[in-house]
Amino acid sequence: MLPVVATPPATLPPAGDLVRACAFEVSCFHDPPSAVLADCIGYLQAGIAGLPALFAPPLLDAGDYRRWADCGAASHDCAGALDCATLGHGADYCAAHPGTTCDGDLLVPCPPAGATAEAALFTIDCAARGMRCLSADGSASCSDGITCDPKSFAPSCDGNRYVELCDDTTHLRYRLDCARSPIPNATCRSGPNIAAACMPSGAPCTANRCDGDVLQSCIAGEEVAIDCAQRAGHCMNVGANPTCVPVAGQCDANDKDLCVDARLESCVDGVVQSVACAELGLAACTLTPGLNPRCG
Question: Which pTM does this prediction carry?
Answer without folding.
Answer: 0.92
